[in-house]
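Q: What would this chain look like folded?
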Amino acid sequence: MATRRQKRVAELIHHELSNLLTFQTQDPRIGFVTITEVEITPDLKAARVYVSIFSDDEQDSLAGLESAIPFFRRELARKMQLRYTPTLKFEVDRSVAYGSKIETLLSKIDIPPEEDDPAGDAATPDDAN
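A: My prediction, written as C-alpha cells:
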C-alpha cells in the first residue's frame, strides 16, 4: 500500500508530466496521449507511468515517450523539490480498452424487462398502513 508521501509525489509527477505533454512536447510521434496513473516506489527513485494512447500507431507513440524521458526528468528535477529525480518507465494502460470491451459484451446481453405481478400480490406503498 502506498504511503501518503508516495501518493503526493505520484500526483505531482502526474500533474507535471501532463503539463509537459500538453504544452512542451514537440515530438510528432507522440499522438494523443493521456496519463492515467503514476505509481512510485517507496524510495521515490522510480516511477511507472501508465498512459492511454489514442492513435493508430501505439508503438510509435510509446517510442516517442521513451525518447523524451531525459527531457521529462530534467523538467521534473527543475520543478520538484526531491532529493532524487525518479526514473520513468512508460507503460500502456490497457484498462480503458478492457472497460470498453466489457461494456460491449454487456450491451450484447439480452435481458428481458421485469414483468409486473399479474396477481397483485406485491405490496403497494398505499398498503403500508
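The chain is about 45% helix and 15% strand.
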